[in-house]
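User: two proteins, same treatment. go.

Assistant:
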Amino acid sequence: MTADWQWDDTLFAGTATYYRQGRLPYAPGLVAALAEALRLDGRGRLLDVGCGPGTLALDLAGHFAEVVGVDPDGGMIAEAERTAVELELKGNSHWIQARAEQLPDGLGEFTVATFGQSFHWMDRARVAARVHTLLRPGGALVHLSDLKSESRPTEGLPHPPVPHAAIAELVRSHLGPVRRAGQGFLPHGTPAGEAAVLTAAGFGDPRRLVVPGGQALTRTTDQVVAGVLSLSSSAPHLFGPHLPAFEADLRRLLHDTSPTGLFAERQPSTEAFIWQR
């Protein structure tokens, strides 16, 4: 990570129950695009590192004989296990509470390792080197994120757009001007430069895959609130006893923006870089 921030166990504390309701989904067609690009045949093994509540691993589970999700947050692992049972995927999914830097021995060999918007929270050089040893020859590490370079216009949406700028200002008014993360601060944001890290770990040149978004998504007030409380920078524990006051202010802001309680925003495109071992 950055020199002025250290990871700690509270990074996503309390966010798991909000995650699935509040986070925007990956672009439609991502699973099919990955299945084609990686030539998935239902027989390999997937390691999802920083799996959160299992969103990506469970979406991909039908294309693997086994998926293993790893996350340091116990709430995330509990949500992943609960959802796997709900989706009748418990038989080929396994969940491990651990930091990526402390992946246990005995995991076996994997066909694919995925990082769904999680790699930037880790000791990237250490994790990349370890994952390289866990992939079979020809296996792939897949780094996924929203496509940061695209604009998502608000014109033509069926409801008022989610007031992201006003929400960010409200968070700052409660938590201060510098971005929070666990017990620390991220004044300069999370690090970039994944390509250099993965090249140094022994991976070959990546293939870039973009799955387009752009669809208009309708969001309710509850979903927008959940999205805010699912973020590390506005996790529930950061507000302490003032959480009810923050949520009341947030709901007031949202009501003033859309009295119907309905909002809309464009589905982000998903960008994937596929790094072969």
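Protein 2:
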Amino acid sequence: MVGVNSEGEVACCKQWICDLSYIPDGARLSQKAGQVIHIICILSHPIKNTNDANSCQIIIPQNQVNRKSDICVCMISYAHNVASQGKYITIASPMVETAESEKEIEPALELLQPIDQKFMAISDLW
């Protein structure tokens, strides 16, 4: 069990998910469990074949893209007050499984074409 002490109260749980910056150096786990690739894209159109939906979630099954895990793509839009009128935001954060992490995300990026802007980062999973 792990816990968080806040304002004199302790909340306990079996698992704690957060950015490493919230964990004191002495409490950090020493074993890296993998990496996650974060892709955020800005589009001027909804994802094709979604009936022009303002939001959706697409799951690309692992066995269709030769992966150990699925790729999930989430799309939100101006309808949710998170982007300018006519803009769509997509987010995907699959586990990195090979040394070619950007190639791993290609099936998701193909769904999103054309992409106005793409932001990508890889972070360690502890």
